[in-house]
Structure formats: structure tokens, C-alpha cells
Design brief:
By secondary structure, the chain is α/β, with parallel strands linked by helices. The protein is built from 15 helices and ten strands. The two termini are 38 Å apart. The N terminus is likely disordered.
Amino acid sequence: MRFIKATLAAAGVALVVSPGPSSAQTKCGTTDEITIANMTWLSAQMLAEITHIILTKGYGCKAKLVPGNTVPTATTMLTKNRPDIAPELWISTAAAIWKKMADKGNVYKASDVFADGGKEGWWIPSYTAKKYPGLKTIADLKKYSKVFAEAATGGKGRFYACPPGWACEIINGNLFKAMGMKKANWVLFSPGSGANLKASIARQVTRKKHIVAYYWGPTAVVGKYKLVRLGMPKHDPSKWSCLTNKNCENPQTTGWKPGEVAVAVVKKLKKKAPNVAMFLSKLQVTNASVNEALAWADDQKASGKDVAVWYLKKNPAIWTKWVPADVAARVKASLK
């Protein structure tokens, strides 16, 4: 090679040596294994798999998915700095632990993963909203009890509340009371379980029947059955505190606060892998796109990895904004 260079130089030929293809690549920044919390529900699994694909295929990181759930994951991040990343950590569910994280300073919120925040509330099918344009808020329900009447309710409207044991069971019961729903010809119905609540919504929507139920998003149910969230009053912390108390003597109407859902990251990762930290700071998905993905997954009985690949193929306009162009190109190549 040295002989060739010398010969070319002697002949007056300019020799341009192109840098290797990897010299300008955006790299991981660390050879340490990066652990990612893989939670027990599908949206969190999808986000964990998306993060894993981008880190391994895009940045060339050594990454691993580890089992997790909201409180256990938050606890181990606080006490053991592991896992390194929790792509969907519901701060509102782990508020006490999150405060300890803030005090200790070893974990930070890289991004709010859902653009609209987590959404809880009372939902109706889109065809119901279209047929009854005057039904826009939960307060409007008092005028529409007959629309939601079923054979077993004797002409009264049925509201599908939360299953027993869920925190929202108390909230919905108090809200039902605060709004005077019983006097407005409504009955509060417990579906018995989360599976039954989902099945009840599926049954009514499949038959094009009207239903109003508590639910949350983004979820497959909201996306698949095209549910519309009824408007609620602005969240009032003092009123809300009473709604969460099963012994609340004078419940008053207020709305849910949008759920704060974080991409939680241990600070040591930010120091050793700044490129990864930059990606995580931009990791945010629209609620609508997640609802759509989860609806597809529900129909296909897809795994978290299946829906992650589907999401990346379907939504390049969203995720390519999170990473440099060379990273995006490598991720796209891996999806073929």
C-alpha cells in the first residue's frame, strides 16, 4: 500500500483515502449492557421492544429486556440503579417512589412518553357521539339515561364502572354519587373483572348498542372500538382527594388529571451513553398511534415484539425524529 501511495504521488495523482464506513456512525457510547424494563401490559412491551430495536440495531448497543412492573421496577431503579430504562413508567401510580427518586437524584424523566398523557375517564362509542351530538360531557349523561338502558335495568341507564378492588372503583362510585346519577335514572354496574369490562364493551360495540363505561388509554380497547372520551371538569386536587376516599362524605365532581407517564432513566446511563440519552429525551408517541397499534395487536394476537416492528414500519414520520439519520437508516434496514 505504501508503494502504491508513493507511485501515485510521484505521478502527481491526488490520493484520497475514504474513512471507514463506521468512523462517522452514531454509536452507543458504552459497551456495558443496557437493561430495559419489559412491563406486563402490551403498550409497555411495545415501547420496550421499540427501545431495544433502536438501541441494538440503530446504535449498536448491547441491550437486554428484563421483566418489570410499575412499583417493582421503580423500586429497583431507586435502590439498585436497575433497570437502566423504563420506557413506560406511570408516575401517577408510583408517586411516592418517584418522589424518593427525585430526592435521591439517581433517576430522571427523559421524556413524557405519551404526547397527550395517560387518559382516564368515561367513554362512549364514536357512533353514539355522532348520533347524539348534544352528549359531549359527563354532565350531559343525566339527560340521556334512556339511550343507555338495557333489558336488565328496567329503563334506567347503565354505567359500567370499575371492577372490585381497583382504585378507580372508589373514584367512579364517588363520582356517580357526586353527579346525582341515581336520581337521574342511572344504575352503577360493576363488571366483576377487567376482562369482563373489556368483553362488555366489545359485545355492545359489536352489536352497535350504546354503552358508557370507565376506561383508560392508550389501550387496544379505545383504539379497536373507537371510543370517545366524554369531557370532564378541570382537575381539582382537593375534590379529587375526597373522590379517592371510600369514606368521602361529600363527593364533588372533578376530572381525572392526565396521567404522567415517563421514560424513566438512571442518570449513570446519561453520562456514559449521551447519544442514547439524547434519543430517550425525544422518545414520545402519540396516543392515537398507540391506540391504533394496540388495536392491530389485539386483532392479530401479536406479541410485544410483533407490534413494535409493526409500529416502526407504520410510523416512520414519528420515530425517525428521535434519532440521527444514520441510526434511522440502520433501524429501517433491520426491519426488512
